[in-house]
Specification:
The chain is built from five helices and four strands, in the order ββααααββα. The protein has helices spanning 26-58, 62-66, 68-84, 103-119, 143-148; strands at residues 2-3, 10-11, 129-132, 138-141. The protein has a two-stranded antiparallel ribbon. A hairpin with a 5-residue loop joins strand 3 and strand 4 (138-141). Helix 1 (26-58) packs antiparallel against helix 3 and helix 1 crosses helix 4 (103-119). The radius of gyration is 18 Å and the shape is globular.
Length: 156
Amino acid sequence: MWCEEPNCQHFVHDIDKGVYEFKAPREWVEKVAPYANLIAGVLKTLTPITAPVANSFFGEDFMKVSNIQSQLEIMKELTNTILSDNKLLIDGTIGMRDGLLSQAERSGILALHSFLDEEDPHHQRLGLKRLPTYTGDYLWLCEKHYQNRQSKMPQF
């Protein structure tokens, strides 16, 4: 998980935060698979450049100290497994389309979002807090940056 504080993005790793272990029926996995495959493809593409970029941005030993490299290796292995499993590669076409996500990918992200809402409705296990911005978007912030952005006005 990453805190999205502008000009201070950083890795957030709190014990028991951001990890959701669960058992899911095959039907749910098949529903989420198109979105998972899209994300797996993006991660597979970006993983080889992640270490040098993170080290140059956060400092030479950042990847070693933060243990992100081993996590990225696990993610790379997982994405390779997902992409190579033809049973889960339901809609592998990425070409030109009308929107950013295909209908199957949108259904997948909605199924994932629904699961997370049921599993952790108040985002307590996420390790980040959602803060609305003036543009209507959201920033996901660590506890420290979230508290720094709270109003300093006295509450009556």
